[in-house]
Predict the structure of Rho guanine nucleotide exchange factor 4.
Amino acid sequence: MRTLIHPGLLYMFLVVGETRGPGGNLRRRTCIHIQKGPVPGEFSVTDVPLCILMSSPILQLISDGSVVYAEALWDHVTMDDQELGFKAGDVIEVVDATNKEWWWGRIQDSEGWFPASFVRLRVNQDEPMEEYLCPLEEGQNDPSRLGMCLGPSLPCKELMRSNVINEIMSTERDYIKHLKDICEGYIKQCRKRTDMFSEEQLRTIFGNIEEIYRFQRRFLKELEKRFNKEQPHISEVGACFLQHQTEFQIYSEYCNNHPNACAQLSRLMKVNKYVFFFEACRLLQRMIDISLDGFLLTPVQKICKYPLQLAELLKYTNPQHRDYKDVEAALDAMKNVARLINERKRRLENIDKIAQWQSSIEDWEGEDILSRSSELIFSGELTKQSPPQTKSQQRMFFLFDHQMVFCKKDLLRRDILYYKGRVDMDQMEVVDLEDGREKDSNVTVKNGLKLCSRSGDQIHLLCVKKPELKQRWLRAFSDERRQVLTDRETGFSLTEVQKKQAMLNACKSHPIWKPKAVTKPYYDFLVRQKHPSLPTALPQQQVFMLAEPKRKSASTFWHNIGRLTPFKK
């Protein structure tokens, strides 16, 4: 055994295994990160396989032939064959980290460049260590060696848990400083310059980051109470995450606003006085050399990182540990928070599509669809009959949360829809009908279902062509009720500003033009409408292709919106 000691270097790693090729050339060295600082005096050269001190740990590890792993914080989607694509949570082998911004990595058989900011190095590099540790666990080697990672009294798993706890505390303190710099370095200075910034602009650029800052200070204070500085591995932090899980939902507003913040900031940065002003703010606050949009991305990154940290903490927490159940529950809770934020972001991205859809419908009447709804559940063509009327009608139905809209196709141009009415789903019960004569209306139905108002004054008989399509509609009605209940439980709702902005965007996206053979009542209707119906950039024939059951896989025209955001895998 021998020890490599380099004077003045800061990081210490324990090498627990080496793989050498022909001729004794080092091919791989497996290391565990021990601590920052000098080698402790109690370390024995004969007890420890190898101790290495280094100033640039990742470069030193790679140059020594060690396998270094990083974990993806979010998706890297690329069409460049020289870049490495991956999803959040993927583990990447870092092959070259010479460039601080772009690293070269490998996932199975794929290699390529990827942004270093999209990943984080694992707290420890234990994945390739399994080959070494398994024999110890099976008793094939001296098990006493397993306790020599940081002295004779601290087993490996407890050491790893200490590392994760320390990382959580360290990153949390850094994050608080970061938020403080934004609030005091930028927002405070911006408010002094009323000639340059309105309150509305500041709200758009910075969102609710001040609210996040106040919450995170409270959260860190609770974490510090549960943190054991002398023995980090016995700290119990899981309960802290559980206690504040609902408060983390304030990140939803920030994440939803972030694209608007980037757009507003981009417009301002085209003017030199704003460029100089923001740079002066950064220098006065002595912040690192990153642009403001980079600083504003940090809360989005942070909320994505919590589940990763808790997953790693759970991995190194013994089931007998007092913190185990709380950490396990906290991991589920933070995953749910991330899912909720991601779902809300997707829903908000949907509303522009819904507003555009409404603007394409001729003769729209009543309130805007966004006044009550924010999600298209299902759509398709049904045969409708509403007693006491006996005549059946072919209509296109669009089921949203809280309501269902039905329209008529134009007789000559089947790609044009005319508004014919809506059904309040909050007041309706759905009944599955057997084939044959329906007793209340005395009408023969096949593949039918009935919508009955709870007051009994409305009845709608709906029929489809195939039994399987009927089942799909029944599932859709169940999904609609489930969606409404979930929104009520999570407190999701659109603000008036969001509704108005979506309708305004729909109006702005299309020039006002007069359709061929337009009649006077159409213009009378435009005058009466709060939000005029306008031609849409999305032709209605495309809506039919996507809304009706298709030969290919069925999907709605906004079903996949938000699929490539940082929060989805």
Summary: DSSP finds 14 helices and 17 strands in the chain.
